[in-house]
Amino acid sequence: MINDGYNRCLTLKDGNESFAVIYRPATESERVQFLDITKRMSEATVERMATNFMAAHIIESDFASKYGSLSMLLQFRSDMFHAIWKAINGWSMDANGVSWASQEKDHERNLREGALLEVTNPRLARRSCEDCKRYWYSETTGLPILTGDGEKMERVGPTLCETMNGCKKGTPENQKSLNPMNRMAFRHYRECEASTFPSDPIVRKNALIIKSALQSKAKK
Asked: What is the pTM of this model?
């Protein structure tokens, strides 16, 4: 299993039984390529390709103990097969309560902005908006400003995000710092830099985004 925050879960019902499927969602590029290729194929070929496509994205599942394989699932419970297909392609909600396709672009933007903030201003990236509203911080060092007693100086007045200058982290409602999923992705990228990268479409896409952010920082 790739510990980069991008594993997702789908729960399916079969009578009184529940089946969990842990999967890697398909990227937009994968979806477009699959649809482009299969529009020229026969129905039987499309089913075979879809089965292989799904198998490549499923990490773990409970249904195999009862149905044996995706091919058998398609034969005996096509509704469950198509539910997995739609989830992997991001067209339906899963255990996260949202569809992957509706979040994909937002996660890409957050990873791009968050990775850049992480390498250019790591203290700001890790500073909570709640702390910023409560205490004064030095915009030069990123450290809290202390009173003569060594205590954090409590803020009076607006924060940077409430001024025309704005804050490099954005606003509390629209932060540019890494979200929890992308913080795992960024850590995973760092770990892979010290070893090897797994062959995975999401890992490759995220690596390109992070590497681009690191290169843009180096040019400044």
From this structure: 0.88
